[in-house]
Design brief:
The protein is of the alpha+beta class. The protein has a single domain (2-144), classed as Gcn5-related N-acetyltransferase (GNAT) (Aminopeptidase, 3-Layer(aba) Sandwich), CATH 3.40.630.30. Helices cover 32% and strands 36% of the residues. The chain contains four helices and seven strands; from the N terminus they run E-H-H-E-E-E-H-E-H-E-E. It has helices at residues 12-23, 29-38, 82-97, 111-119, and strands at 2-6, 43-48, 51-62, 65-73, 101-107, 123-128, 138-144. The protein has a seven-stranded mixed sheet, sandwiched between helices. Strand 2 (43-48) and strand 3 form a beta hairpin. It is globular and about 40 Å long. Coenzyme A is lined by residues 22-23, 71-73, 78-84, 106, 110, 112-113, 115-116. Coenzyme A (COA) is lined by residues 22-23, 71-73, 78-84, 106, 110, 112-113, 115-116.
């Protein structure tokens, strides 16, 4: 059974493992705690039969804008609608806050994620040169709520 639940501090090791494999970035564990403490509803974990299989973590940029910081589903669990569930819930919570837009960054090579976001009416609004730690460029994408 799949459930969506808030992030807990004890999730950090598993979240970090998913982030490393899926996003190719290593984040300081303290970053997860600080994201969760700044907006707890914006850090949502997907759990399948007790194991974490995906998560989305965002922040409130301003009263008008939320931003997706990290979003990943563990490889063996993709294409089952889990990403759609997490993302739909994040959009709903952003709208509940009164945000007017959601922003995010994505690797220019990540066609799959760009297509995923486009289905949610995100549009590319800018290029971010050498945005990632391995030197890859990013796109900034925005959805108007
Ligand atoms: C982007 C990501 C989070 C999407 O998660 P996901 O759980 O695979 O997303 P969904 O299953 O909801 O949708 C993915 C695809 O499955 C299809 N799908 C959705 N529900 C489905 C279902 N019930 N059964 C079969 N396919 C389904 C969707 O149409 C979509 O099609 P696509 O092949 O054109 O992309 C995931 O691919 C991922 O973790 N990628 C690596 C990390 C990453 O790129 N993160 C974004 C960084 S900006």
């Amino acid at each position: 059974m799949l459930i969506l639940r808030p992030f807990r501090d004890s999730d950090v090791d598993r979240i970090q493992e998913i982030a490393l494999k899926s996003l190719r970035e290593i984040y300081d564990p303290n970053l997860y705690y600080s994201i969760a403490s700044s907006w707890r509803e914006g850090f949502i974990v997907a759990e399948n039969n007790g194991s974490i299989v995906g998560f989305i973590a965002g922040t409130i940029v301003s009263p008008e804008e939320t931003r997706v910081l990290m979003f990943a589903v563990s490889e063996g669990y993709r294409d089952r609608g889990i990403g759609t569930l997490l993302f739909t819930e994040f959009i709903r919570r952003s709208a509940m806050l009164g945000a007017r837009r959601i922003s995010l960054e994505v690797r220019v090579s990540n066609r799959r994620a760009i297509d995923f976001y486009t289905r949610f009416s995100f549009v590319i609004v800018g290029l971010l040169p050498v945005y990632y730690s391995d030197g890859e460029d990013g796109y900034k994408m925005i959805k108007v709520l």
